[in-house]
Amino acid sequence: MGVIASSSNKDVTLYANSVILSAGGLATPVILQSSGIEEAGSNLFIDILVTTYGVHENLNLIKEPQMAMVNLDFHDSKGFMLSPCVNHPRQLRFLEAGLKGLSLPTHRILGIMTKISDDATGRVYPDGSVSKDLTESDLEKIRLGTSISKEILIKAGVDPDSFVETQPAGAHPGGTAAIGHVVDTNLQTKINNLYVCDASVFPKAPGLPPILTIIALSKHLAKQLT
After folding, report:
1. How confident is the model at residue 47 (pLDDT cuts 50, 70, 90)?
2. Going from the N-terminus, what domains does the chain have, and what CATH number goes with each?
3. Which residues neighbour 44 within 8 Å (Cβ) at sequence distance 6 or greater?
4. Does the pLDDT value for residue 8 go beyond 90?
5. Is residue 11 predicted with pLDDT exceeding 90?
6. Is it the case that residue 79 has pLDDT exceeding 80?
7. Pairing state of beta strands 19-21 and 194-196?
8. What is the structure's pLDDT at 190?
9. By the 8 A CB rule, do 172 and 47 touch?
10. How far is 98 from 51, CA to CA, in rounded Å?
11. What is the tens place of the pLDDT at every residue in 159-200?
12. How far apart are the two ends of the chain, measured CA to CA in Å?
């Protein structure tokens, strides 16, 4: 068991009793497919998010940390969470919402992010390219989340004629080496002593930041191997 590391000058082979792959939801499946595990790469989710911006007469979120609070009232029943969020750099707002985002007055913006547990319908291919479509279920979650966000923002004093919605984006790619499909419950692949421990082993989208779950999986695997 080992790993071959390639550079422009030479290849270096590193041997070990066990190998733990933790390259993330997009890179891990590429490495696995190159290692002969062809079933890796399917079931990609990305925790899709859309932010609803609106203009307030005098309030903003400039001095507030991103996602200072999270509302989970709809997470279990409807598959999405809400959180206050504004990307302050104008360049970022242009990338996520075009000219409408660019034209928003920075010192008068309020925003709420809708993050959904999206369907695991995407794929990462052996060359590293990615495909990911929005399903009707995904779109319905986004529609409901943005509708509630607008209600909240209007009650906060936002001009209802000023709303701008960003293009869907992804935050936490995973699922591409899922438990029960690519790895077993011990996080081992069909190659003996080759393990995976990152968000790619998640069987479905959490719709939430995955870091604590990844830490828990890491501790579980560490105890198992020692």
Report:
1. very high
2. 2-43+173-225 (3.50.50.60), 48-121+129-170 (no CATH)
3. 25, 120, 121, 122, 123, 124, 130, 132, 173, 174, 175, 176
4. no
5. no
6. yes
7. parallel
8. 95
9. yes
10. 13
11. 999 999 999 999 999 999 999 999 999 999 999 999 999 999
12. 17
Amino acid at 128: G
- Provide the mean pLDDT of the chain: 94
pTM score, two decimals?
0.87
Percent of the chain with pLDDT over 90: 85
Q: How far is CA 131 from the centre of its chain?
A: 14
In angstroms, what CA-CA distances link 5 with 1, 26, 35, 181? 13, 19, 13, 27
Query: How big is the chain, counted in residues?
Result: 226
Cα separation, 53 vs 154, whole angstroms: 11
Q: Give the pair of three-digit tokens for residue 179.
A: 């438990």
According to DSSP, the β-strands at 48-55 and 109-116 are antiparallel
d(CA 1, CA 206): 33
Q: Residue 119: CB partners within 8 Å, gap ≥ 6?
A: 45, 135, 137, 138, 205
